[in-house]
Amino acid sequence: MIVEDERDESIFDQGFDYQGLKLERPPQLHQIEVEVEALVIQGPMLATVLSQVKKLEASVLVLSQSKPSPFCCFMRSRGEVLVEECISRAECLTLAVRRQSKGVGGYLVSTRWQKNFWLLA
């Protein structure tokens, strides 16, 4: 059922100034609480990361991934190897995230089951 209000139509007829209106942020219904812990530890990278994941009983491991260099087509960097090994060997859900190119936007997310999934966020 549609109910028309004559007063609403008169606003549009009068040339109402919409630039003066402010958009208000809707109230947040839920606040998500996440416990985050950051550590700086020296040692062999892969073994240290995997042992800390196991020790802390982490449920999610998020790794930053850099864009591969176009000059190193045949060789992977140490960072790329670390990320791929963590994804395949960690006991928890592991996400590798890297920013998509500036023109496109979004992020590329890699997991054990999906490689380079494009996420627009």
How would you sum up this structure, described in words?
The structure is a single chain. This protein is α+β, with helices and mostly antiparallel strands. It has a domain at 42-121. It has helices spanning 6-13, 45-56, 78-89, and strands at 60-64, 93-99, 107-110, 117-119. A four-stranded mixed sheet has the order 1-2-3-4, with helices on one face. Strand 3 and strand 4 form a beta hairpin. Helix 2 (45-56) packs parallel to helix 3 (78-89). The chain is flat. The chain starts with 5 loop residues before the first helix and ends with a strand. The relative contact order is 0.12.
At a glance:
This protein is α+β, with helices and mostly antiparallel strands and 121 residues long.
Keywords:
16% strand, single chain, 4-stranded mixed beta sheet, 4 strands
Question: What is the secondary structure topology, with strand pairs?
Answer:
Blueprint: H1 6-13, H2 45-56, E1 60-64, H3 78-89, E2 93-99, E3 107-110, E4 117-119
Parallel strand pairs: 1-2
Antiparallel strand pairs: 2-3, 3-4
Q: How are the strands ordered across the major sheet?
A: 1-2-3-4
Residue fraction in strands: 15-25%
Low confidence ranges: 1-8
Helix count, per DSSP?
3
Considering DSSP H and I runs of 4 or more, what fraction of the residues is helical?
25-40%
Shape: flat
Distance between the termini: 37 Å
Give the overall average pLDDT: 75
Order of SSEs, N→C?
A: HHEHEEE
